[in-house]
Design brief:
The complex is a heterodimer of chains A (about 240) and B (about 150). Chain A has helices spanning about 10-30, 35-55, 65, 70-80, 95-115, 135-165, 175-180, 195-215, 220-230; strands at about 1-5, 180-185. Chain A has a two-stranded antiparallel sheet. In chain A, helix 2 packs antiparallel against helix 8 (about 195-215) and helix 5 (about 95-115) runs antiparallel to helix 6. Chain A has one domain (about 1-230): Transmembrane di-heme cytochromes, Chain C (Fumarate Reductase Cytochrome B subunit), CATH 1.20.950. Chain A has 9 helices and 2 strands, in the order E-H-H-H-H-H-H-H-E-H-H. The longest helix of chain A has about 35 residues, at about 135-165. In chain A, about 65% of the residues lie in helices and about 5% in strands. Chain B has a single domain (about 1-150), classed as Four Helix Bundle (Hemerythrin (Met), subunit A) (Up-down Bundle). Chain B contains 6 helices and no strands. Chain B has helices spanning about 1-15, 25-50, 60-75, 95-100, 100-125, 125-150. Chain B starts with a helix and ends with a helix. The chains are: A mainly alpha (about 240), B mainly alpha (about 150). The interface of A and B includes residues 129, 145, 222, 234 and 235 of A.
């Protein structure tokens, strides 16, 4: 009964950081600020890696295991919803769980494509472009544009769903994503949350991974030093 | 199609600015100049990757600088009138190329100069010279793309 702590701070911070970075990446991509685009993209990489780790190490409402359900469960939930008999769910419902997976998966794919992509003159290229051929890098650059449009579509769907909940179902999902708390009219099981050391561990691991990728994923100390001392020639405010 | 591209490219190479006199369709002209830009891009990628290594392979850099230099020389001849967006062929070339021909040719000559510098640096084998000359070629690419290529 009453207010229940629903989303932990890492989940909320992740969510709103993605919103801000998504906008920044869109703008820098469209306006050819490629160096800035790459830097923000690497932060996005760190965020995505963190969210995946948190999906295994985080609190109960953050865990994939708690909200990723099979198609049968999704259909059953939809049927029950239509009849007004949907159970009260603390966390993502079966359909919302898939929305999380699809959005996170598309983000990961988009970041991955950006890492190996190159502009046709190969001055502006992702930090892992050297692992792929020129043609693959070219194709990745084109796919980066296609996947962005797919991502936009799913973001629009996500926002539409939130608005549907707000205005039709009279259920405000935005407020809990800001405050972390949600009021329930009946008694519910309270979520459990992860201890701080797991958060510290996940943040350090995600940041270290993003930093390693930023250096071009070196496999030896010598390569790492080279990448650190002689960063590739800057494409500056380039020409996407 | 491949044969046509090769022919059109040969025509570009041989004919200087009077490419339009040779019976290449706009589609062939666009395909040929794109293939030429890809040759440039491949060479840039190869050199950039060597320069990121602890011990760059001068052989690869020299061969790529040679290839880059050759392709750079063709760029200015790749845009005969009628091969722009108005031809209906899918191209990122902007109409500005034909509206400001002096600027465009200046930009392509800048590329030829910078590519020549890079080739000379590669021939000398002086890595410091190469490291200076390489981003200058990138700058020449940018100088042209900022004004004459569609942003996407």
């Amino acid at each position: 009964m009453g207010k229940v702590r629903l989303w932990d701070a890492p989940v909320r911070l992740f969510h709103w950081s993605v919103v801000a970075l998504f906008g920044a990446l869109w703008w820098t991509g469209e306006n050819g600020k490629i160096d800035l685009h790459k830097t923000i993209g690497l932060v996005m990489l760190g965020l995505v890696v963190f969210r995946v780790l948190w999906g295994f190490l985080g609190g109960s409402t953050a865990r994939f295991g708690s909200f990723v359900k099979g198609p049968g469960a999704v259909l059953a939930y939809l049927r029950a919803s239509r009849e007004g008999k949907a159970p009260t769910i603390v966390g993502h419902n079966p359909l919302g769980g898939w929305s999380v997976l699809v959005l996170l998966g598309l983000l990961a794919l988009q970041v991955g494509l950006g890492l190996i992509a190159q502009d046709s003159d190969a001055v502006a290229s992702g930090p892992l472009n050297h692992f792929v051929s020129y043609d693959t890098g070219d194709a990745a650059g084109e796919a980066h544009e296609v996947v962005f449009n797919i991502l936009l579509l799913f973001v629009a769907l996500h926002v539409a769903a939130v608005l549907f909940y707000l205005f039709v179902k009279r259920d405000n999902l935005v407020h809990p994503m800001l405050s972390g708390h949600k009021a329930f009219t009946q008694a519910v099981e309270h979520p459990t949350f992860a201890p701080a050391w797991r958060l510290i561990f996940s943040v350090i691991l995600a940041a270290a991974f993003a930093g390693w990728v930023a250096l071009g994923a070196p496999f030896s100390l010598e390569q790492a030093k080279q990448a650190w001392q002689a960063p590739p020639p800057s494409a500056d405010e380039s020409y996407m | 199609m491949k044969k046509h591209i090769v022919l059109a490219l040969a025509a570009l190479a041989a004919s200087g600015t009077v490419v339009s006199a040779i019976a290449a369709t706009p589609a062939e002209t666009v395909a040929a100049r794109q293939a030429n830009f890809k040759q440039l891009g491949r060479a840039m990628k190869a050199i950039g990757e060597e320069l990121k290594k602890p011990a760059p392979d001068l052989g690869v850099i020299r061969a790529s600088a040679q290839s880059l230099n050759q392709a750079a020389g063709h760029v200015g001849h790749g845009f005969p009138r009628g091969s722009g967006p108005e031809s209906g062929v899918k191209t990122e070339a902007l109409a500005a190329i034909w509206q400001r021909p002096a600027d465009f040719q200046g930009a392509t000559r800048n590329l030829v100069t910078k590519a020549g510098d890079l080739r000379a640096a590669a021939t000398s084998g002086d890595l410091n010279r190469i490291r200076t000359a390489f981003p200058a070629v990138g700058g020449a690419c940018k100088g042209c793309h900022d004004n004459f290529r569609e942003r996407h």
